[in-house]
Amino acid sequence: MQALASGLDRDRFEPFVFSFADGPRRRQLSASGVQVSIGKDLLRCLERLRPHVVHLHRAGWPEPGLLRPLRLTRVPVVVETNVFGRRDPSPQAQIIDRHLFVSHFCASRYAAVEGIDTSGPRYGVLYNPVDTDCYESNTPAQPWGQPIFGRISRADPGKWSHLALDILPLLKRQIPNFIFRVIGGIPEAHEFVRAHGLDEQVQWLDPVESDLELADFYGSVCLLAHANDTGESFGLTIAEAMASGLPVVTHPAAGLRDNAQLELVEHGKTGFVAGTAEEYAEAVARLLMNPDEARAMGQRGRDKARRLFRKQTIVFQVENIYLELLEAKHGPEAVSGLRRDEVQHVER
């Protein structure tokens, strides 16, 4: 949401972001010149702004309290980024003109589970935007040839898999001097490291917020070790690591859980997909001990990220969606008659 709102063409759009809760993104949005409102009364905000387009960012499941204000204020166009690929069968959801999934995986699962053809005009896939130019320009040269790898997430147990820990004793047998740099360590991870005598191998790092800080982290390691039992509906950390030139090791999630990480990471090309701790540890060891292969995989990942996730490309696509829907619903004058198209982004 932040990248889309801040990247819109200001000669054609006037972005405004509303959120029910405050956080670090507000400061970053304000710094980019985007107006931000934090509060509980979305209806009053919509009545004041009268936007031409509202773009919702939400999980996808029913939220009548969110959609009712949009219906009451008769917003001309409503676009939804369906972050987790869930369905809202409520009558209120009929006001949504375009459902955008953040991966082809989410669109395919939605179609299979709900029996809905997501190739229709109300649906589409729009990857999350990544500032690939920033990562290419600001990521330091990775320490290829040194046994250093990393992982990054929120310090939330729901973002972890025990696989990220089980590989460490196995890896120590092959590469005793490896360094594992971790942002977002949880208490269980700290305890595992202490219990297995891995304090010299694991470095716990503070959280970061900006793309520049992230670029510094991605430049300090030779691969990203992604492990999350709930999986990824897109996998922003993976996409950022790819944009920084890193190979990625990941694993499948079970059942109908999110598996877009397998859409981003192409096994044997931009990284490895491992099913067990033994396979995962072997993949990490292989990349650490073969820097030329790791560098080549990282470059293929960077090329893919530039091709599919580049912020400027994604923003241009979403701008066209806004204008296409405005014209389709309200005629050419709805677009040509506007000096500035005001777009409201709502974050859930």
Structural class: alpha/beta
**CATH topological fold name of the largest domain:** Rossmann fold
Model regions low in confidence, pLDDT < 50 over at least 5 residues: none
Count all strands and give the number. Answer: 13
Q: What distance separates the N and C termini?
A: 10 Å
Specify the CATH architecture of the largest domain.
Answer: 3-Layer(aba) Sandwich
Oligomeric organization of the protein chains: single chain
Strand order, main sheet: write it out: 2-1-13-3-4-5-6
- At the first level of CATH, the class of the largest domain is Alpha Beta
Strand composition percent: 15-25%
Q: Give the topology string: H per helix, E per strand.
A: HEHEHEHEEHEHEHEHEHEHEHEHHHHE
Number of helices: 15
Overview of the molecule:
This protein is of the alpha/beta class and 348 residues long. The protein has two domains: 2-129 and 310-347, Rossmann fold (3-Layer(aba) Sandwich); 132-308, Glycogen Phosphorylase B (Rossmann fold), CATH 3.40.50. Helix content is 42%, strand content 17%. The chain has helices at residues 2-7, 24-31, 42-49, 64-72, 104-114, 132-138, 163-174, 187-195, 211-218, 236-243, 261-264, 277-289, 291-309, 311-330, 333-336, and strands at 13-19, 35-38, 53-58, 77-82, 98-101, 123-125, 148-152, 179-183, 202-205, 224-225, 248-250, 271-273, 341-347. The strands form three sheets. Strands 2-1-13-3-4-5-6 form a seven-stranded parallel β-sheet. The protein has a three-stranded parallel β-sheet with strand order 7-8-9, with no helix packed on it. A three-stranded parallel β-sheet has the order 10-11-12, sandwiched between helices. Helix 7 crosses helix 12. It starts with a helix and ends with a strand. The mean pLDDT is 95.
